[in-house]
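Hey all, sorry for the wall of text incoming. These are the four entities for the joint prediction.
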Amino acid sequence: MTIKVFLADDHKILRESLIILLQQESDIEVIGEAADGHQALVDIQRLKPDIAILDISLPQLNGLEVAARLKKEDPAIKIIILTMHKNEDLVARAYQLEVNGYVLKDNALEELLKSIRIVQAGGIYLSSDITSTVIAGFVANFGKTGGKAELISSREREIVQLLAEGNSNKNIAQLLNLSLKTVETHRSNIMHKLGLKSITDLVLYAVRNHLIEP
Amino acid sequence: MTIKVFLADDHKILRESLIILLQQESDIEVIGEAADGHQALVDIQRLKPDIAILDISLPQLNGLEVAARLKKEDPAIKIIILTMHKNEDLVARAYQLEVNGYVLKDNALEELLKSIRIVQAGGIYLSSDITSTVIAGFVANFGKTGGKAELISSREREIVQLLAEGNSNKNIAQLLNLSLKTVETHRSNIMHKLGLKSITDLVLYAVRNHLIEP
DNA sequence: AGAATATACAGGATAACCCTGATTAACAGA
DNA sequence: TCTGTTAATCAGGGTTATCCTGTATATTCT
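and here's what came out:
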């Protein structure tokens, strides 16, 4: 019995290449493909693959939304997210949706094959270079806040935005009538909670989460 | 005589897949690969492939900058840009660099093979879906970019990207084999030239100019 | 040749970062 | 109600990083 997989990715070159290579595996069979979220949703519900492999940045309906709708209708469906995004928030959202795998495109092809077999066997697969701290932090928060995990507090989010807008710690302290030390503490906590390594990462986080516009 | 190609793309899954499939073509031989711009530049100059296939969004040094440096050293080198971006400004910039091919990742694999053979034969290949945007872009940009002085130098652009990717001055100095003080000077000059007040402004500049992806 | 630019490097001042603390208020669970 | 957790506030003190002001050489442009 082969593992029937469905592949949704908007880049045809990658889609075609992966299908050719997946077909060469004796235990894997690609039974369908899609280039956008709507088509993926319709075809996956019709073809009922064992595993749906979804890119996040799909046109019309993003991969996480497709995953959410599939899981809502059939919580047993197996989903692997295949994406270039190692953004903490997206990983957390995927985790919330209880997807079965999260594989980065800059990992080896071998990782994808491994994830398919592990997920088919009932396991959960996460790319090794996704920071464990984010997952740990997320798991720690999950359930205590009623389902929706807020990684950072309201005050912290306010400071994220001010930082991403180019304000210095000193500046923020003046704006918010706080001690410089308080701002430093917030900043440090934010970096740890979000798993960011530099102010640059913070700006990108803010852009991705629409706290500021590029 | 086979066509010797070099492939640079930061997504290992795509890179691996493409190499396997390109190797199956009897007239094509992949003689090297790279996951970042620096490695690509060094290896391409060392291995001297017939055609260099470059993604635009490469870490450390983006594909267009790699193309510019390769063309400067050897104007006869053949370059195919393989990218997800169909922005007219990126296409126009590629055209100014006189690259030999521009293929979109959402085209078929067959397109890439065709582009390799056409470019090897001395032709220029453009993905069919960007023909209209490229024409529009040229009409709009023609004349403007003729003698317009670049705001920042090639070296500075390289450092902008490394900064926006979250590297510290120290880190960049090591990567480029420069003194820390040199990197600091470049950084300062960049900020003044571009009228930026903070590193976050620089990240936003890099995002807007597609030096990095949000 | 002269001017402008790119590239490279230094010293000293300022700001940010890191780690280990502390206090107070709010709030949830046993 | 007591206890534990989190949010929010602040501090000392040491280590790094960044900013500002200069200098110098090679290359490129006119």
